[in-house]
Amino acid sequence: MTDQTAPMAAGADAPQAQFTVEKIYVKDVSFEAPNAPQIFQEQGQPQLTMNLNQKVAQLSDTMFEVVLGITLTCTLGDKTVYLVEVEQAGIFGLAGFDQRALDVMLGTHCPNVLFPYVRQSISELITTGGFPPFYLQPINFDGLYAEGLRRRAEQASQQGSIAMAEGGNA
User: Fold this and answer.
1) Cβ neighbours of residue 142 closer than 8 Å, sequence gap 6 or more
2) Global confidence as pTM
3) Angle (nearest 5°) at CA 137 between 50 and 79
4) What are phi and psi of 22, to 5 degrees?
5) CATH topology for the 15-156 domain
6) Is the pLDDT of residue 13 over 50?
């Protein structure tokens, strides 16, 4: 019995981190096939370009809206075959996290929760638009987050070097 109560007593002082998914919803969606129906007769290898973005808004002390936006453009030569834009959003409850852990949760875990929904929406829009099925490949949000941290650190060190150089000239 002592073994069971000791860990609880040690953890009683630290706030327990809590993560909840409150709501998942489509914030914005658009599908365009500007060159249909003529594009269905075109031959060639289509090119796909994907843009990914993420926005975070704090709604209260513990509630955050995370929006995962994906724009997929398919071109054939100089013609747009289709353009799909989906903003998949979620409201997440995050309590008891330190600032660094909160940043990681918002930058990696929340987009991972939203991704299957945005992937399904994109696939359905393309198929409904009369085009062959397209399945968005998994995205490594942990890797993207790490790359973003690396870039921020690099920019901060460059700004620090510029400030030191300017300070030395004064």
Assistant:
1) 108
2) 0.81
3) 35
4) -90, -40
5) Bacterial Protein-export protein SecB (3.10.420)
6) yes
